[in-house]
Write a sequence for this structure.
């Protein structure tokens, strides 16, 4: 009697457990992030989860018990989806491809996988999963690869253009006296100026596109700024502007490629001086340079009371070759932006037309 009771208890426990498992599995399948549809060995749809009937936009009750041809003839299935199901069926079941990718009407990427075989005892299992994120990563990787190649290619072309330019420059200089005799010295002057401009562009391009490994060294922001100001002070005075370097704390230490970061600050001071000379009213030009700690970063600011910028200029500022100057290269800021990003920092800018501009360079500090 007792053993009979024990057996029945055991049995109840087993049934209970397997029911529990069934419901858990169904729950899992119901809430998984892929659409699932199972056709049994007779080709009859025996299971479909929420994701899948949601994608087909059909009620579950009208799907279970359907065959593939019933599904294709379903009155509530949209034309677009009918075509898609047919295509998936042809590519996977007919042609035997294990998976098929498609783009839906909203531009999202999906992958359908068909599993069949012995383990499934003749059943066919379709799973559909959105793969837009993977596709985006794949495309970005592909683009980056292309960009890197393009960068290398253009750097070598730029390098090759330099040699003939040097030769042309030399010969024009030789011809200069003859052009002078003909009263056409102006031509020589223009050619030389244009060659120099082309050389400048190539020089800036090469320094920017070289996948340079930064020569990292530690330096205090104060020392770095002092050195740059020293380099530019006399030119600034000649152009009627005064550079004011604020008193800086000595504990602002950064670990950077000093030459590159100096180049960035130099570019900005040069731009500031040019903006001041371009200003219509002749106020005394002022360039303020300073730095302050902001959490784990240092913010170096360079502001000027030059001509400022309109929205259109502000929008395109960092694009390579964007310039508003007659003899500008439009590379200064795009190069600077790249350098600072390579150092894990960023550049921001604020500006008012006819009032001035402030650039802020943020860089991680050595703690
Ligand atoms: P370039 O100086 O050769 O023109 P940059 O990349 O250094 O190239 O600058 C791009 C453009 O951004 C400039 O042509 C100018 O219009 C604008 N710009 C940069 N800095 C300033 C500034 N401090 N004030 C006003 N405009 C500026
Ligand atoms: Mg510039």
């Amino acid at each position: 009697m007792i053993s009979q009771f024990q057996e029945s208890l055991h049995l109840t426990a087993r049934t209970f457990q397997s029911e529990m498992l069934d419901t858990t599995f169904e729950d899992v399948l119901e809430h998984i992030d892929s659409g699932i549809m199972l056709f049994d060995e007779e080709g009859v749809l025996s299971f479909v989860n929420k994701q899948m009937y949601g994608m087909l936009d059909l009620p579950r009750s009208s799907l279970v018990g359907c065959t593939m041809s019933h599904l294709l003839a379903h009155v509530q299935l949209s034309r677009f989806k009918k075509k898609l199901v047919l295509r998936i069926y042809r590519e996977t079941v007919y042609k035997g491809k294990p998976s098929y990718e498609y783009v839906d009407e909203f531009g999202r990427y999906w992958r359908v996988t068909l599993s069949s075989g012995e383990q499934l005892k003749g059943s066919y299992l379709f799973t559909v999963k959105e793969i837009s994120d993977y596709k985006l990563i794949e495309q970005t990787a592909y683009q980056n690869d292309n960009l890197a190649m393009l960068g290398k290619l253009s750097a070598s072309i730029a390098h090759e253009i330099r040699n003939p330019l040097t030769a042309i420059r030399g010969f024009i200089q030789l011809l200069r006296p003859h052009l002078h005799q003909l009263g056409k010295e102006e031509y020589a002057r223009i050619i030389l100026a244009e060659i120099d401009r082309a050389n400048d562009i190539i020089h800036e391009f090469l320094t920017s596109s070289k996948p340079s490994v930064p020569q990292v060294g530690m330096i205090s922001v104060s020392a770095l700024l002092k050195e740059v100001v020293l380099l530019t002070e006399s030119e600034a005075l000649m152009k009627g502007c005064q550079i004011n370097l604020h008193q800086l704390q000595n504990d602002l230490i950064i670990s950077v490629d000093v030459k590159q970061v100096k180049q960035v600050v130099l570019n900005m001071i040069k731009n500031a001086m040019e903006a001041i000379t371009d200003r219509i009213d002749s106020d005394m030009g002022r360039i303020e340079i300073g730095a302050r700690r902001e959490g784990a970063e240092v913010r170096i600011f360079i502001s000027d009371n030059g001509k400022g910028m309109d929205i259109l200029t502000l929008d395109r500022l960092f694009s390579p070759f964007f310039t508003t100057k007659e003899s500008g290269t439009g590379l200064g800021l795009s190069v600077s932006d790249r350098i600072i990003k390579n150092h894990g920092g960023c550049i921001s800018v604020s500006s008012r037309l006819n009032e001035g501009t402030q650039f802020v360079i943020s860089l991680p500090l050595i703690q």
